[in-house]
Design a protein that fits this description.
Length: 274
């Protein structure tokens, strides 16, 4: 039979109740990287979706309607956390992916339209950034220059595309994956929302490779994940500080290899800078 005789079919969600429960746990947990908390209202929407009474599109729409009521008094941080969480779940359930820097733009646009200023959404930033990090005693990672964002990403994606992972992941695979993700994050292509966009990219990339991952680290250790990215991108040679990938590798060993490492945020504090 020729392939032309086999019709295309509309892709539909095949998520199970357990998968939907995990999606919500991951989405809500990831809001902690920006100090945000979701609302009790979102919990009720999540329950309806988990039980199969809402589609992910309907869940997103219920959240949109709830916050579109002009008379409603709500916390702006909760609104952002709720809206972005619902959209994350929709992305995870749809699980469509293309290995390209453009995928980062697509994810960012899906998560943050109507949440961040319009000029930030799905667009590379047009200024350089610093951010005081508590674990660095107020110092900042040196993020990529905004003029070269596309070049940085094309290089990182090109290097990654040439790598062949083995399964189960070996130590070399964990190291390679950590370096790739750290490079994307250090480029920091967007004005805001980089860590959550990167986390969604990881989920979709892993799914595109057929990898079954443990989502508990993203749910429980989202702040550790971000701070591990910080430590993998910071150096101060006169003080004897070099980029340290061991924390990020431990995180990904838990994600991909069920390693069970204890992930403590206090371990990430760079005491030489305090």
């Amino acid at each position: 039979m020729y392939n032309e005789e086999i019709p295309y079919k509309e892709k539909k969600s095949e998520s199970t109740k357990q998968m939907r429960r995990e999606y919500w746990a991951v989405a809500k947990g990831l809001q902690k990287v920006d100090g945000l908390r979701t609302s009790q209202f979102l919990d009720s929407v999540a329950r309806e979706h988990i039980e199969g009474r809402y589609t992910s599109d309907e869940a997103v729409e219920h959240v949109r309607r709830y916050y579109s009521e002009a008379s409603k008094d709500y916390d702006g941080g909760e609104r952002e956390a709720d809206v972005v969480s619902a959209r994350m779940v929709r992305l995870l359930e749809e699980m469509t992916f293309k290995f390209s820097p453009v995928m980062l733009k697509s994810i960012h646009r899906e998560l943050f339209y109507g949440v961040l200023p319009e000029e930030y959404v799905g667009e590379w930033r047009n200024c350089n950034l610093t951010k005081e990090e508590t674990i660095l005693g107020g110092r900042s990672v040196q993020y990529g220059d905004w003029n070269s964002i596309q070049d940085y990403l094309q290089y990182d994606f090109g290097e990654e595309k040439g790598y062949r992972y083995q399964y189960p992941f070996r130590e070399a695979d964990i190291r390679r994956f950590s370096q790739f993700i750290s490079g994307i994050w250090q480029t920091h292509p967007f004005r805001e929302g980089n860590t959550r966009t990167t986390a969604m990219f990881i989920q979709l990339y892993a799914g595109s490779m057929g990898l079954k991952i443990t989502n508990e680290p993203f749910r429980k250790n989202a702040v550790f994940f971000r701070d591990a990215l910080v430590r993998s991108n910071f150096s101060d040679i006169p003080k004897g500080i070099y980029p340290d990938f061991s924390y990020l590798e431990a995180f990904f060993e838990n994600v991909f290899c069920h390693a069970g490492h204890m992930l403590s945020e206090m371990d990430l504090v760079c005491r030489a800078l305090l």
